[in-house]
Structure of Polar amino acid transport system ATP-binding protein:
Amino acid sequence: MPPTESTSSTPTANPPGSATPAIEFKDVEKRFGKTTVLKDLNFTVAPGERVTLIGPSGSGKTTILRLVMTLEELTGGYIYVDGKPLTHTEKNGKRVELPSKTTRAMTTRIGMVFQQFNLFPNMTVIENIIEAPVHVLGRSKNEAVEEAKSLLEKVGLADKADEHPTRLSGGQQQRVAIARALAMSPEILLLDEVTSALDPELVGDVLEVLRDIAETTDITMLLVTHEMQFAREVSHRVMMFDGGQVLEEGAPDQLFNDPQHERTRSFLSSVQ
Ligand code: ADP
């Protein structure tokens, strides 16, 4: 069942409960060479929950999303998706890497949208959207095209199916990227500063599409954004990061109206 939405602009504080988290970070460590970016990081995200990561630049937020998407190698600890290990498991007290096939099968349930859209420039909009459903999920081309058309409708770009991405505005490209992620029917959607590269007048349409997804689906979302009003509207929970650690977390109203840490207060006053 999708999460029940209140009619006010603030989502209900309690997302649908479940014994098995959609995402679990257990003792996660991430090093780049000698630099440790994340250390002993533990948190869970419930199925259907929408969690926004905020915090100063360099605090590790993007790295967290990239680890879930397996675009970065996990150097310590474990990440579980739906209770199943993503890249490493514990066997006889030892940390063991899973076969890449197992990991790849898990990541088909995860979609990611990037700051820089990352569309295939040599393909049309519709070809971008059907690429993975056809080649990764084995859907028939006709079925994938029908689904892609209805997704383009959803993101307000029904008339752009045969355009090349370079002929679209940044906001339109980002909406295609969102449609492309949704075409894989993800259980988890990762959104990494998806409006940061856009001209201010194009941000609203992209946020509107994301609001619609939040209201009409039960997709678990983990997002990094500097759009605090948007975070307040769509998140069940906000986590404030500093130096690779969760400094504090809470329902958006609580965290934004009554932050407990001076560092959260100064961060919020710098972005709001
Ligand atoms: P945020 O998203 O909070 O701005 P990031 O996750 O992008 O933070 O980065 C966290 C830290 O990891 C930064 O110090 C950054 O320089 C470092 N980092 C990120 N990616 C790499 C990389 N590929 N190689 C080396 N250092 C990296």
In short: Residues 141 and 204 are 32 Å apart (CA to CA). Residues 32, 37, 55, 57-63 surround adenosine-5'-diphosphate (CB under 6 Å). The longest helix spans residues 200-216.
